Fold this protein.
Amino acid sequence: MSDRISLVLLAALVAAVAVTGREHPSKATTVEKRQTPARANLNGVWQVTEQSSRVPGTDWTAAATPYLSLYIFTAKHYSYMYTLGSEPRRRFAGDPNQPTDAEKVAAYGSFVAGSGTYTLSGATLTLNAILHKNPNEMGGEPLKYSVEIDADRLQMTIVNPPFSPGRERRTVLMRVE
């Protein structure tokens, strides 16, 4: 049931991206692209190319890049889903509609997902979760990222995230659409 809800949500967000569209100046230079308002550059579909973390003031340590990932930003909403680890998720051994408790735990632990609204003010991206895999992150404190957008590359850095207290977390995304 939750898989169907996730698929419906994803389809709705993809449709919203298609309807709102994006401007693609055909002969824009790199300088012109950098001068485009950040919101216009954020809309689209992205994939994770790098994840890393660190204790503030130390070197970044690379984490496994998700095997599969998808971030979608529309004019006001976002949705993201990705797998943890660099390998495909393990499939259920028996009936896929009746996994064992151990299979459910493994599936829950290998997947991250969240959707909601966002605001972008200067270089600060604030995500306000409406739906999230972790129910404790729904309706809680918004997540605030510092962002750098350069054409088809988006770097998001969060300080002291609830999912990794006392650390900084950096995610780099590349536009796919």
